[in-house]
Amino acid sequence: MENSMQMNLNTSKLGMVSTASKFKSRAYKVQVISCRGRADGNTDFYRVLRLDRTENVGLDEIKKAYRGLVLEYHPDVCPPSSKDEYTKRFLELQMAYETLSDPISRKMYDYELRSGNGWMDERGSKFPRDVWEKQLDGLKKRSHARLMRMNNMYR
Amino acid sequence: MSSLFLIGDSDKKSSKSDGSNIQNSTFSKLLNFAPPFCISFHQFEVMAEPAYTVASDSETTGEEKSSSAFPEIAIGIDIGTSQCSVAIWNGSQVELLRNTRNQKLMRSYVTFKDEIPSGGVSYQLSHEHEMLSGAAIFNMKRLIGRVDTDPVVHASKSLPFLVQTLDIGVRPFIAALVNNIWRSTTPEEVLAIYLVELRVMAESRLKRPIRNVVLSIPVSFSRFQLTRIERACAMAGLHVLRLMPEPTAVALLYAQQQQQLIHDNMGSGSEKIALIFNMGAGYCDVAVTATAGGVSHIKALTGSTIGGEDFLQNMMRHLLPDYDNLFSSRGVNEIKSMGLLRVATQDAIHKLSFEESVQIDVDLGNGSRICRKVNREEFEEVNQKIFEKCESLVIQCLLDAKVQADDLTDVMVVGGCSYIPKLRNLVKSICKRELYKGMNPFEAAVSGTALEGAVASGISDPFGNLDLLTIQATPLGIGIRANGNSFVPIIPRNTTMPARKELVFTTVRDNQTEVLIVVYEGEALKAEENHLLGYFKITGLPPAPKGVPEINVCMDIDASNVLRVLAGVVLPGSQQPVVPVMEVRMPTVDDGHGWCAEALHRAYGSNLDLVTVQKK
């Protein structure tokens, strides 16, 4: 439930910013969070960004931390052999950054952290996420292997 | 890059890639091809069979070995609707390559004459003259990957060659007039011929074979259009390393310039937010980027198919209101008149960027003659709608990026239309900024692709000039058809790439055993108004009341911008997906897909429909 609340807040905020934009005020609900890089639902976004949670981290520091980590984990800069792993990490990093760089979603996230609920949607409990993600991983590995085979010919 | 292509290289002369024979024999031989045979520049062993062979490019694995110890630096190519250019990182900076006539910017056109087509890279005769004969095909970037119901294709009917539509969603009929006979071609073929010339030009300049390229593309290109660009490149023997939306290439150049200014190599330092407005002959794109420490983070992209060509067409119709009537038939004389008017109008528009008024005097050869003065105000009035559209793109992009005009550090106007005073003024006034002067507006995009080419080839620079990174965003939303005929984005527009998102859907009928996943790309609310990327069925759902099965649709864009759609089904209470997860690489559609969505609807109605799961 936390997720959908967060998303709703986000969309309504966007709606305010951009009344001119017809793209923002759609009828469908946006429920996007849950394809996270790690199966672990309690990822600490502050830790992902290598920030100390106790301290009052400013937006500039979050941006700075993000940019520094992007240079480490963006799949464009990683060794070709570990593209998959880096893509995963990047997705996690991106999720952490997007949550913490938006004042409203950050507040929500901080609140959830304090109340100890973790950052996991309700569906996670009944949805066999592990199975799903294992399958996705398997498929990814196969596609990756295929991609590598294809890329080889360009070497 | 799993495209298939036909190898027409039946000649016994092997074209091993040692670079020596490329200029002469291979070149002329390879240009000498007719549709639908697309000659691959792949360097195969001698093919004994004279027949055209279909080969998957993966079959070449292991046959090619890189001859040099240094990694090959990919070249950057800016394929413009009107002009093209090639650039490369030369070890210390970006250098634009010149053709034999010492030009850095080359006209984008191919002339079909006497069996051997030739393009604007090498050909000697003037474009203007060729245009009058109907033998020159141009504006291929506007036509590529579009079906004949597309308004852009319809607007292209006024070009001085043949563009015919049947309005049924197939590829348009495009032909050049060669010795009074229409010779049909395709935008991919024209582009491939042109790319071969660019490649030969680059190979002779750099004295090595060229294989890898980074191309700039319009923001509004669909993934299907990207496959057509890749196809054209494959036909020309080029491997696409990256396709960069044009303004993001400019953003990368900007990031490098800022990096050079402040010697600062980590994410620290001040963040600079820049808006890039890029308008050429065919497309208008806007991007907002946040740059610091060599990292260009694309915040938002907007784009549209408006460009110099629209200014030109509006002006031609303004000067000759009877334009469409006069040229409804395509004889040699009509083409000549159209060409003459086109050249004169183009010239006038160009001059109006620097002068308040200009005298037009053109004899169309069919008895009518246009002799009058045109002033800048008139030009601006005739094109009012285009300027308004440009304005809305800039405003939209700022909104999408969640950036106020006051937050901007720099504002760039680049591309072929960048000298039009009205355009410069409108961007300046929205952004409340003077324009950035640090880059050549015609060379910015190609320079950015050359930088990306070097970075993506793994080249490093001792002075840190290549410590660059672009964090790209998706230019268009990607989603599926659900909730009736609605388009439900799964990866919204301006999502950072690589990306992975998922949504849960469910069935609309009791005991529905199959669902149809129709994947679209775009921004329109109605599914069929977006670009169709492909479709597949999930079959074998166990009977269950409607709304019970959870159909999880996940979309994944990896670091190479490859889109995969994954779909799995779970029933509540079960621990296993009830059917194996489907993984489909998109796009899957081919030419003539324009009628697909309609045909699907006719065949299946809403029987295999989906709805989004509403959270309780």
TrEMBL record, chain A:
Ranges where the J domain occurs: 44-113
Annotated Pfam families: DnaJ
SUPFAM superfamilies: Chaperone J-domain
Protein name: J domain-containing protein
InterPro entries: DnaJ_C/III_chloroplastic, DnaJ_domain, J_dom_sf
TrEMBL record, chain B:
Alphabetical UniProt keywords: ATP-binding, Nucleotide-binding
Pfam families for this protein: HSP70 (PF00012)
Region feature Disordered, mapped onto this chain: 1-21
Claim: Nucleotide-binding is one of the keywords in the record: yes
InterPro entries: ATPase_NBD, HSP70_peptide-bd_sf, Hsp_70_fam
Top-rank taxon, per record: Eukaryota
Presence of keyword Nucleotide-binding: yes
Family, per entry: Belongs to the heat shock protein 70 family.
Protein name as annotated: Heat shock 70 kDa protein 8
Organism name: Hibiscus sabdariffa
